[in-house]
Design goal:
The protein has 9 helices and 4 strands, in the order ββαααααββαααα. By secondary structure, it is mainly alpha-helical. The protein has a domain at 111-246. The strands form 2 sheets. It has a two-stranded antiparallel sheet with strand order 1-2. The longest helix is centred in the first third of the chain and has 26 residues, at 41-66. It is globular and about 50 Å long.
Length: 247
């Protein structure tokens, strides 16, 4: 793994740099797709930007509350560019809340806006996989397979590489807009379904997953629920899709 790059006295955290590159690419692709869908690209861009800012701040503050004594001793640590000191779930919820409020105030139509977000979110997921590879997070379970990588005193499944490959596949599928009409929201649901399916597969090889009693992996249960919900929404929102498939 390659968590740091030393440039003289400067030490760059490569996982954080990968995430920043992912944010930049996500904003760029979202703006382009918004223009293609004839949305106000400035409003969409600002919605994503402020959602990201709120998500990062919310994730850091939520993490800090769990280690309050540490951050009270060193308040400047709140500004550290370390993705490992973030609470992802709290960040996602905060970001979605702020983005939703902004989009509603700017009267952005829901389904076209969701479709505009899809390629950028897919590209960001690729960056997350790269960041995991660089940091060594999200590591795999021990394996005897010839492509195992040596990490944490064992040869393990290269789940970070699996994650990047799956994320690239999801991105290519969403970028081509294979379903529905542009702006009807179907490709956003496709992104959610494919991402949930990829996570369902990937978790089988993870070595750091939360496992409930009975051997159930928490992330797989959540991923399965996400896949089923997205497929149900496809059928509910888009009955014409079923008619086109029967022809």
């Amino acid at each position: 793994m390659y968590p740091y790059l030393s440039l003289g006295p400067l030490v760059v955290q490569l996982p954080g740099l990968a995430l920043l590159a992912g944010v930049y690419l996500a904003l760029l692709l979202t703006e382009k797709r918004a223009a293609h869908l004839k949305l106000n690209k400035e409003h969409v861009y600002n919605m994503v930007f402020w959602g990201l800012v709120a998500g990062i701040v919310g994730a850091r503050l939520a993490y800090a509350t769990r280690f309050l004594s540490v951050y009270l001793e060193s308040p400047l640590s709140l500004l550290a560019l370390n993705p490992q000191t973030l609470s992802p779930v709290d960040g996602i919820l905060t970001g979605l809340l702020v983005a939703g409020v902004y989009g509603r105030r700017k009267n952005l139509p829901l389904r076209p806006t969701l479709d505009a977000l899809a390629p950028g979110l897919a590209a960001f997921m690729v960056a997350v996989g790269v960041a995991h590879f660089l940091s060594g997070d999200a590591f795999g379970a021990p394996t005897d397979l010839p492509w195992g990588i040596y990490l944490w005193d064992a040869y393990r499944h290269p789940t970070q590489i699996y994650e990047v490959i799956l994320a690239l596949g999801v991105f290519l599928a969403v970028w081509k807009q294979p379903l529905g009409r542009p702006g009807d929201g179907l490709n956003f649901l496709l992104l959610v379904a494919l991402s949930g399916g990829a996570r369902l597969f990937l978790e089988a090889f993870r070595g750091d997953s939360l496992v409930w009693d009975g051997g159930w992996r928490a992330a797989q249960i959540v991923s399965l629920a996400v896949v089923l919900l997205s497929l149900a929404l496809m059928q509910k929102w888009y009955p014409p899709l079923q008619n086109r498939q029967k022809r």
